[in-house]
Amino acid sequence: MRAAVLHEIGQDKLEVLDDVEAVGFGPGKVRIRVRATGLCHSDLSAMNGVLPQPAPFVPGHEGAGEIIDVGDGVGHLKAGDRVVVCWLPACGVCPACKRGQTELCLAGFMNAGTPNFRRPGGDVFGFAGTGTFTEEVVVDAGCAVPIPDDVPFDIAALIGCGVTTGLGAALNTADVEAGSSVAVIGCGGVGISAIQGARLKGAAEIVAVDPVASRREAALRFGATRAVSPEELGDAKQSVTAGEGFDYVFEVVGRSATARTAYDHTRRGGTLVVVGAGAMDDFLQLNMFELFFDEKRILPSMYGGGDVLRSYERTIALWRAGRIDLESLITHRVPLAGINEALDQMRSGTALRTCIEI
Description:
By secondary structure, the chain is α/β, with parallel strands linked by helices. The protein has twelve helices and 19 strands. The relative contact order is 0.16. The model has no long low-confidence stretch (mean pLDDT 96).
């Protein structure tokens, strides 16, 4: 079967091969025919080494498709079921799950070190224990979440990561207060979803911050009240908050420099929400006095900061009701053979989300 493979960390292009085999099928597993997958910035971060991932590997973790086969012991799924791929399934029994913090369950990460694929030359891993830039993938049954028939595969794929992450940051982690002021730094698919979440919660002012003009224009269509370049953020802070700072600032880039900027533009007593996934050697510097004196809350948001399955259901309900726009997040579509074109679109910032149709 075909799959897009990164041979070594640091390479900037994927090779689409037709000699890849999905492996590991057995009890508790399912085989999925991938129909659509989104390109998330985390895929690029794994390719360039910002996020740890053994290689060679098949990127992709934001996918949807249909069940081909189920292993022994899988009773809630059957061949033909439409599913979204969940790259962070909850085991239900670990301390985090028992506390209700299923997004902190580590069971899914344990799969990342087990190869999902094989080629004549040896084993191939799947990013985050999945790997959706492929025609078929074998995953734990908990990674396959059924979706209603009226949810298209491309929409379902977005719900699998970017939309859930961005919406959840505003709805779950920050719990944005109605009438508040919000700034969102980084307006790709996740940032746009955070903007939609802030709008749903009734934020009065939502300032979108991005260096790419087309993304700023898109942010206004999705609910931002104004959109500025990073250089204009200080002026926006003065104009919107009289210099005090925003009630909530979302950092959706994953870099210490932008996190520091976000902190500086959060009002005293306000909330900084860290959504972007950054590198382990990139340190955010804060002094102990400002932490004490400013009393700003710093809230990391992992996968939307809430129960993933409930978040999926909520997102589908909001989409059905017309309260959020998911179709317009998909600005580009390419076949699997055009995956490197999709990578270029992500790097240049021309795409909010590119859907790879398989």
